[in-house]
Amino acid sequence: MGRPSRSEGLDPETQYAEIYANLGEYEFPWDITQALSFALFRTYAVPSIGSLLDRTGEFTERTQKRHDDTSILLDIPGIHGLDSPEGKAAIRRINQMHRMYDISDDDMRYVLATFVVTPRRWVDSYCHRRLTETEVTASVRYYQALGARMGIKDIPADYDAFDAFLNDYERDHFAYDDGARRVADATMRLFKSFYVWPFGLGMGLFGRAIMDPPLLAAFHYDNPAPAVRKAAAGALRVRSRFTALLPERKRPKYAHSRRRIRSYPRGFEAEKMGTFTPGCPVRRDAPGQAAATEPDPVTRSA
Q1: What is the pLDDT of residues 233-285, one digit of tens each?
Q2: pLDDT of residue 58
Q3: Alpha carbon of 86 to those of 18, 28, 144, 180: distances in Å?
Q4: In 3-state terms, what secondary structure has residue 112?
Q5: What is the DSSP annotation of 49-83?
Q6: pTM of the complete model
Q7: Cα-based distances in Å from 135 to 6, 15, 87, 142, 247
Q8: pLDDT at residue 291, rounded to an integer
Q9: Is 106 helix (H, G, I), strand (E, B) or coil?
Q10: Which of 104, 108, 110, 107 lies closest to 165 in space, CA to CA?
């Protein structure tokens, strides 16, 4: 059975940030990291997202840095608090980058949905226990709060609504795109680089083995044999059962402390991370005007 949730007794309506931090920093740090990586990977299969990322060149030419920036900027609000000075700086940097591009509300809402749905699916499928209802509700509330500060409209009200939105959006929008495939291939190469030889050689097959058929089809990736899928899922479950027997983690595991984060050996500042105008070729027609007329949700909520 393993250890019980360390969030037992906490209120997901008011202590959602602490509960979500427990999941990502203490109980399932490796699994939540993998799930969020695959959540972002899913978004490439929507051509309006994947092709945009390809046109910027950021995810194909500076894949490691884009991975590191995304991981750290999303982690900072969870570490320090959504409304802390550090959290506000990270969210403001994310908002500034998003306003450089013509991104639809639906695409923004879909990306948020992947952050809610994919980690639960991963933990429930591969870990030694399923998420509790308290943990699921807290995850929803955390990302609803983050989404509000990012100015995302019509955020789903609960997990079932997030799940339904994600399923419908993927059914209607997953499709092949050459640019999205380039972004996916670059990301897969990066994932392989996280593991020493010879394990890195097999990470491409392993990664595809835990992707669902619609996602594979959207990238024109081969569908691994059922035996390979079974072996990959089994390996993840064995790993989780083993780690559940280890002593309880006493110190939090943060994104920036992981060895796969390589871009900031001397530390980082949220305000200097990511991309800036000018510097990326895919911008709104009048980026300066957009920045001046669209209020920052972080500032507005302060």
Answers
A1: 999 999 999 999 999 999 999 888 887 888 888 888 889 988 887 544 444 44
A2: 86
A3: 16, 24, 19, 32
A4: helix
A5: HHHHHHHH-HHHHSHHHHHHHHHHHHHHHHHH-TT
A6: 0.89
A7: 10, 10, 21, 10, 21
A8: 39
A9: helix
A10: 110
